[in-house]
Amino acid sequence: MADITRRFGWRHLRSAPTAHIRHHKRGRLAHDGPGLSFWYRSLSAALSEVPVNDRELAMAFHARTSDFQDVTVQATVTYRISDPAEAAARLDFSIDPDTGDWRGAPLEQIATLLTETAQQHTLDVLARTALAEALVDGVASVRDRVAAGLAAEPRLPTTGIDVVAVRVVAIRPEAEVERALRTPAREQIQQEADRATYERRAVAVERERAIAENELASQIELARREEQLVEQRGTNTRREAEEHAAADGVRAEAEAARTVRLARAEAEAAREVGAARAESQAAWLRVHGEVDATTLHALAVTRLAENLPRVDSLTLSPDVLTGLLSKLGATGPEPRA
Q: What sequence ranges are listed for the domain Band (predicted)?
């Protein structure tokens, strides 16, 4: 929008480099060009401002495919006004000389023209295309058809409009249809994921089986070694018992031999002792045999006295004493009573 200031009944206009200004004064063209700056009187001036920069027009509309499916088309058209004089002659680009605002809506008219033209060609393409094909190749075909249709549109050159580029952003079906179309792919992806999961589980089971087999083999080897160890321990124990038995036999034989030797020695000693005692007894008997009876009686009494308990006093009757003395052959005075 042009910048307009007031000074003493005059107006001063200053435009941007991307705006083409046409100034008519009393029906004659006084100023014509982009980025102008000049003074004028508002009562006698007719001003037009035509933007000459590239402008983006976003559009979205519905279309129906050959299989009667509703789709939404999102596109963007880039255009510019290449002939401002033609555009100002065909469209109302006039501005208020006091405020600089457009009196009409020329850009909306251009947007309507471009949108309806692009929509017409889009509908023509999609009406002959199935939904699946439209979703796969529809963007390129619609873009090419819209670009060709806008280039062939006779109203655009006569209005001074050039189409710079056409871009189709997306072609989308309804939400339910889009979910239905996604289902097979999702199912396939899920099947692939399940297959990968099953393969991973199979690999895990195989590894677990290998681990279990290794553990079982280890246990078998351990049991075999334990069996060998038990057998070796039994052999060692048996050998140890045999060694102990042999040692005990040797010890017993030595003990028996020692006992026999001791017994023989004791028997020999006892025999010698017996013989000595017999000889002593025989000698004793020979001695006593040679002694008279009185001496023997005295000896017997002496031995008896040695073995009797101590007697402090003894009272003998005369008869006993007389008989005893007579036997001993002793003489003496009469014993007192």
A: 32-197
Q: What is the pLDDT of residues 194-251, one digit of tens each?
A: 889 999 999 999 999 999 999 999 999 999 999 899 888 888 888 888 888 888 888 8
Transcribe 245-299 into DSSP letters.
HHHHHHHHHHHHHHHHHHHHHHHHHHHHHHHHHHHHHHHHHHHHHHS-HHHHHHH
End-to-end Cα separation, the chain, in angstroms: 191
β 161-173/19-25 pair status: unpaired
Cα gap 222→49, rounded to integer Å: 100
Name residue 38's beta-bridge partners: 13
pTM of the model: 0.54
Round to whole Å and give the CA distance between 162 and 78: 9
Give residue 176's Cα distance to chain centre: 39
Residue ranges of alpha helices (H) inside the chain are 84-90, 106-126, 131-152, 155-159, 175-290, 293-307, 318-328
Averaged over 51-62, what is the pLDDT?
91
How many angstroms separate the CA atoms of 139 and 167, rounded? 9
Distance CA 264, CA 251 (A): 19
Asked if 142 and 126 touch (Cβ cutoff 8 Å), the reply is yes
Rounded Cα gap, residues 194 and 209, in angstroms: 22
Exposed, middle or buried: residue 195 (CB in 10 Å: 0-12, 13-18, 19+)? exposed
Name 126's Cβ contacts closer than 8 Å, sequence gap at least 6: 63, 64, 65, 66, 71, 73, 134, 138, 142, 171
